Amino acid sequence: xPAAVLSRELADGIPDAELVVFxxxxxxxxxxxxxxxxxxxxxxxxxxxxSVQDG
Length: 55
Hints:
The protein has helices at 3-12, 29-32, 34-47. The protein is flat. It has a domain at 23-50. By secondary structure, it is mainly α.
């Protein structure tokens, strides 16, 4: 089974997960292109701001 299919299945099973595919990215994409990786991570975090409530 292709990695993209497995990644989609994994993301679908995790609440609030979002699958982001970086064209040409490797397993260590955060080191390969840290600016792009961190921008995607910050956008994800900003989209969830206020969605977590204190227990």
